[in-house]
Write a structure and sequence with these properties.
Keywords: DNA-binding. It comes from Enterocloster alcoholdehydrogenati. InterPro entries: Cro/C1-type_HTH, Lambda_DNA-bd_dom_sf, TransReg_Diox_bact_type. The chain is flat, with a radius of gyration of 18 Å. By secondary structure, it is an all-alpha fold. The chain has a domain of 75 residues: Orthogonal Bundle (434 Repressor (Amino-terminal Domain)). The longest helix is centred in the C-terminal third of the chain and has 26 residues. The chain is built from 7 helices and no strands.
């Protein structure tokens, strides 16, 4: 998928994931968002393209930000990743945090080296 393309499959998957984490039935989310259950099903399975007003309604019904549903389609998503990282690390003890910090630093260095090497080709 190219830059600036919207991945409706991933958006639908994220909507379904958040909905199921909140233990909502598809019909309940559709009702809260003011759309039909059939439309919600088509959104979650990427059988229809999602209009901006609809994604806003769904995000509001799920109590999440729109960027949390769209993050792989956005270029500037640091707050979403910051939140996901914080949630992942929230139950770590100090030793785990230290170890993970070192691993992240190492991976960051390797990723940057890989990008730099591919840029010189």
């Amino acid at each position: 998928m190219g830059v600036n393309e919207v991945d409706y499959v991933k958006i639908g998957q994220r909507i379904r994931k958040v909905r199921t984490e909140q233990r909502l039935q598809q019909a309940e989310l559709a009702y809260r968002a003011g759309i039909t259950t059939s439309h919600m099903s088509h959104i979650e399975t990427a059988q229809t393209k999602l209009a901006l007003p609809t994604i806003v309604k769904i995000a509001n019904a799920l109590f999440v930000s729109v960027d949390e549903l769209l993050y792989d389609s956005l270029e500037q998503v640091r707050p979403v990743y910051d939140k996901r990282i914080a949630e992942t690390l929230s139950d770590c003890d100090p030793d785990e945090l230290q170890a993970l910090s070192e691993v992240i630093g190492t991976i960051k260095t390797l990723v940057r080296k890989k990008h730099k090497a591919s840029d010189t080709l």
